[in-house]
């Protein structure tokens, strides 16, 4: 089925062409801390529909005509919206907290690294969206799936907090379309054998909407059907008992089947097939690590995958009707004009792309680039935007709409919604951080590797999407330290990894903004190095961490030749080993202070190692910080080239706090620094093979160098500073 021509015409309107009419489509102004003030009586309602595993790149939106008509045509489609972890529980934890998975430390579906028990154990049950909205005067309601490992055995130890009304799907029946178990408020769980899960979610959502209207307050209603997730027979799942239980749900017999439709939809789309894109079961292997080793799918396998695809489309039809019913209800109550409706999913999905069995968990566009549609007051109708947004941005966006304060520890920021905001910021932020730990699992009767393999262990990786004017890139580092780089302007299917030996001839000719890959890679790697352990505003403004002077805010600006030497010297993203969870000491060097570098008042001991000689020659000077002496070790490696070559960096210095022992000069005077940027010390090392002078040694100390891997005779400089 193809998108109707009228819908295509409407959805194809880029925002610049829809701005002229958007003002007349607005009912009330957007609100929030950075927007127009609004009284509590007129604050908007918010409805949030969250599907499970819905794709963007296999055209699922073309098969839900009611959502096309009532959301896409009446709102804005965000084409560059991404989840940050391509599996449900970590993605949902990030979605509801506004924090990346490395900060929630909910990185898996089940304990010990994820699931509802770990969400509770890590303190998020007291610190997530519904609680903040209640504090702002909102009524809050939720129905459907919340987290994995939220079970009939542990639902009350403790109950999920923050909801005025809730009716949660519970394991082990969460994904059993015709055998769902729900648990309402503080009541006991109730099984619904023989009733269709999505229809139950719809009715519960309508009832909560009535409750919200009766309460007479602005409300937030989240509706989370399981479609189009694969069906899972509940009999294969074992209990998880509480927040301190480290026994995962058993998947020894883990088998999934094709998603199940409501009876009225069972025979739809008999001829639908997975789109035969260039990365569909390609003749040549693609991807990295275990993915590159997958054999070409057999005809029987492809036929099964097409049927799986049809099952997903059929399961989405009840979601289509659910959304239509919600909008009817809002209209009936006279609330539609003052309600924002968000429609998205937890992660994307692949079927046969890169020769993969049905599933998610990969960093490719099929798995991370997902639907986001927003309809509401001030949001352009029929709009399509290329603004880069992520799931961690949605909580800040919702709180902003509610007029509630934003938190300093949010890893995201409010996304542009209004005509004006969208016109001004289509590419103001260009990056999305992507991360994953643990298994890759097939949701097919067919296994990986051409045999019955159902799980792949080493699927841990860090990745980065960068989308700017004239560039569109994906960069990743796997736990095996294999790297990927795709120029998605010329290779949207991600078939040609420019960092793989097989693509060496292509890589030699490849350029981005006119620069060769040897200049590009250090920039991308440094950006990922910051993002892989960032916190708070550093996650949304990583270039500022690398360039605190504020002179770099994009990859284009970072590619300036004056920064070549700086980026060559930065630490690289690397793993010591593959782990199933976020184990920091397995993930190589970390950006200092977890992404927040403080240049004044820090201890030298935070930044240096004062007892290592090893393969490097070390000397020392003494400095005084507010009259308290500390020893600072200055090292340089005898194998200069292996240590990274020459360096040149800057560091902000507060003269009033530092002086050299037995000298009457300030530190900056002693170092004979250049002052072309305020109190900035310029430090450089001579060419390899030359000894460091006393002044150079002192300058090196000021750089806060850290010996990360002495056994490899290598040290890295983690200042977060670039030289002008």
Automatic annotation (TrEMBL):
Pfam families hit by this protein: GFA (PF04828), Sulfatase (PF00884)
CENP-V/GFA domain mapped to chain residues: 612-724
PROSITE patterns found in the cross-reference section: CENP_V_GFA, SULFATASE_1
Domain of life from the UniProt record: Eukaryota
GO molecular function term, any single one: carbon-sulfur lyase activity
Keyword tags: Glycoprotein, Hydrolase, Metal-binding, Signal, Zinc
Secretion signal, residue range per the UniProt entry: 1-22
Family to which the UniProt record says this protein belongs: Belongs to the sulfatase family.
Protein known as: Arylsulfatase
Species assigned in the record: Colletotrichum asianum
